[in-house]
Amino acid sequence: MLTAITFIVLTYLFAAIPFGLLATTIFGGDVELRTAGSGNIGATNVARVTSWKVASPVLLLDITKGYIPTFFATNFWHFSDSSAQGFVAVVALTAFLGHCFSIFLGFSGGKGVATGAGALLAITPLAATLGCLVWGVLLALTGRSSVAALSATASMLIFTNWLSPAHLPVVGVIACGIALRHATNIRRLMKGEERTIIQPMRWGQQTKLTATDLLSQRPDGSEAD
């Protein structure tokens, strides 16, 4: 019988798997993800130093780190109503912390946006989906992952308060964690030094990119090796 504590430990170990580092080790040639680009192990830095063809699976895997454990905690554990909500929150936060502070990387890691989003998709699907849409739109318009992530995180608080206020505490904690993990990005944004990870959308652009073109591009629009 799987106990709650064992499940939380397994959640942490699963979330601590550095999929971005594994992907670039296998498919990134000589790239060392922790010293290239921003040094972050998340999907956006994978895109920055390789291409979106490599980064897209990493993004999906990082989302599953948060979604799968939280989904199981939400649907397959039987507690009283108050205990169940607390357990789900602990699992979601454990997944977020596992990604950000991986035991496999000396307790360093990514910024938790995708993993946090995955956990929140299991807890409050509609609010999280709307937050993801905000992320996608702002990433396309600005090309800056930090702008998209921080704005989507702020919007998640609004959407959750509107659609599922009972879950606002756990969303608020994850939002604070994401903001803290983006402290250096916020400083760069204030100085106008934050880099893009994709080319921002240009209205009236004559050349239309296919999905294959986008996946094979680096942030500057050049073809990945």
The major pleated sheet works out as: none
Please report the total strand number as a whole number: 0
Q: What would the average pLDDT be, to the nearest integer? A: 84
Number of domains: 1
Description:
With 225 residues, this protein is an all-alpha fold. It has one domain (4-203). Helix content is 66%, strand content 0%. The protein has 11 helices and no strands. The protein has helices at 4-15, 19-27, 43-49, 52-76, 81-100, 113-123, 125-142, 145-163, 168-181, 183-191, 211-215. Helix 4 packs parallel to helix 6 and helix 5 (81-100) packs antiparallel against helix 6 (113-123). The protein is globular. 42% of the residues are buried. The model has no long low-confidence stretch (mean pLDDT 84).
Concise synopsis of the structure shown:
The protein has about 220 residues and is mainly alpha-helical. The chain has helices at about 5-15, 20-25, 45-50, 50-75, 80-100, 115-125, 125-140, 145-165, 170-180, 185-190, 210-215. The chain is about 65% helix and about 0% strand.
Distinctive features:
225 residues, mainly alpha
Task: Summarize the topology.
Blueprint: H1 4-15, H2 19-27, H3 43-49, H4 52-76, H5 81-100, H6 113-123, H7 125-142, H8 145-163, H9 168-181, H10 183-191, H11 211-215
Helix pairs in contact: 1-4, 1-5, 2-4, 3-4, 4-5, 4-6, 5-6, 5-9, 6-7, 7-8, 8-9
